[in-house]
Design goal:
alpha/beta; eight-stranded mixed sheet; 12 helices; about 15% strand; elongated
Length: about 300
């Protein structure tokens, strides 16, 4: 099953929410103000958010005028292209050019952060890369245990300490171990407590400084994991984490369980940060490298 088929199946709830309203929009006899109003409303219902929906409709209005589009079917094709451009803000692959490369994985508790790390590790090991998992979420007892299970399952190495240990010291140990073993990629799990911004900021800042000091020339990604079912709340979280941690890319999980798949377009466009993975199931292969065209096509 390729990306399109999996995403199409995963986005069935979003597509159902969109199709009724969009079908009416694109069977309109003429492209007038009512057409654009209805289109905006449909896109908001699919959780693109007000700003992104209005922007998409405005861009379509401009395209229709410039290209002298007359039929609703042509307008639909133009809209797909606009949405692809809005979500396609950077290359989809992780930047892993150096040895080692570092991926700092952040996000609030419950979004599927540790599972996402495990799935990425599994895929990287299958590609022939050596991977080190670093259990930097020392505040949740189950987090390191869960990561250990994924390490065994994927064939990755793991560095962990006791519960309540200083996350930065675990990251330091992980980097030293990765250097000694000549590891290709270091995946760092971090604590996901957003209720106290200052604490989280200090913690992530400390971890980032250690990575910069120990691996100044390494390729580094800060991957934010968002739960697709939270819709616009995910966008609020993403904005906060962007301020706190300098997010470079995102993974959106649980898209198979929600009618809010449009959030993928909303966060990419609003923050100009690429979505690099989308999750539509439990298996390691259900976390897929994001393909903008396939995603937008599956939405329709």
């Amino acid at each position: 099953m390729g990306f399109f088929d999996k995403i199409k199946a995963g986005l069935s709830k979003t597509r159902a929410a969109l199709s009724d309203t969009l079908t009416n929009v694109f069977t309109a006899s003429e492209i007038d103000d009512d057409f654009y109003d209805e289109l905006e409303e449909s896109l908001i219902l699919a959780d693109l958010g007000v700003d992104t929906a209005v922007k998409a409709a405005d861009l379509l209005r401009k395209t229709v005028k410039e290209q002298h589009i007359k039929s609703a079917e042509e307008a639909k094709s133009a809209l797909k292209q606009i949405l692809v451009q809005m979500v396609n803000v950077a290359p989809a692959e992780l930047n892993l050019q150096t040895k080692p490369s570092v991926v700092l994985v952040i996000g609030v508790n419950g979004v599927g952060k540790t599972t996402t790390i495990g799935k990425i590790a599994t895929q990287l090991v299958k590609q022939g890369k050596s991977v080190m998992l670093v259990a930097g979420d020392t505040f949740r007892a189950a987090a390191a245990d869960q990561l250990e299970i994924w390490a065994e399952r994927s064939g990755a190495a793991i560095v962990r300490q006791h519960e309540g240990a200083d996350p930065a010291s675990v990251v330091f140990d992980g980097i030293q171990s990765a250097k000694a073993k000549g590891v290709d990629v270091i995946l760092v799990d971090t604590a996901g407590r957003l209720h106290n911004k200052q604490n989280l900021m200090n913690e992530l800042g400390k971890i980032s400084r250690i990575v910069e000091r120990e691996l100044p020339d390494a390729s580094k990604e800060v991957l934010l994991v968002l739960d697709g079912t939270t819709g616009q709340n995910g966008l609020i979280q993403a904005k906060q984490f962007k301020e706190i941690a300098g997010v470079t890319c995102m993974a959106i999980t649980k898209l198979d369980g929600t009618a809010k798949g449009g959030i993928v377009i909303a966060v990419a466009d609003a923050l100009q940060i690429p979505v690099k993975f989308v999750g539509v199931g439990e298996k390691a292969e259900d976390l897929m490298v994001f393909e903008p065209e396939g995603f937008v096509e599956a939405l329709f």
